[in-house]
Design brief:
126 residues; mainly beta; LRR-SigEffector_domain
Length: 126
């Protein structure tokens, strides 16, 4: 588990983060000044929980992110600059919980979300 909760002045993550091959949980809650995620974050195939709550500068998700096949919880709440979700989110076949509360810049959801057969909890609100 890597918990960087409220590291509010953190502006980037090292690309070497992807070498944590046994990482199960990554918590970036409150890291409001992060400008990007490592491109190869999806290489952490063991990742089950990803918390990006309050990641204010996030406008889109990395294209590789939907390759996190083991991901069961994904928290995007408070990502108020997030404009769109990739259609490839349908690849998150193990996803059970998706939280997108207060993603106030999202104008639509991909139809492919309906293909998330394991999804049990979907939280949406402005």
């Amino acid at each position: 588990r890597l918990d960087l909760y409220s590291c509010s002045y953190l502006t980037s993550l090292p690309n070497e983060l992807v070498n944590l091959s046994s990482l199960i949980r990554l918590d970036l809650n409150g890291c409001s000044f992060l400008t990007s995620l490592p491109n190869k974050l999806a290489n952490i195939s063991s990742l089950k929980r990803l918390n990006l709550n309050g990641y204010l500068s996030l406008t889109s998700l990395p294209n590789e992110l939907p390759n996190l096949y083991s991901l069961i919880e994904f928290d995007l709440s408070g990502c108020s600059s997030l404009i769109r979700l990739p259609n490839e989110l349908k690849n998150l076949s193990s996803l059970k919980r998706l939280d997108m509360r207060s993603c106030s810049s999202l104008t639509s959801l991909p139809n492919e979300l309906a293909n998330l057969s394991s999804l049990r909890i979907l939280k949406l609100s402005y």
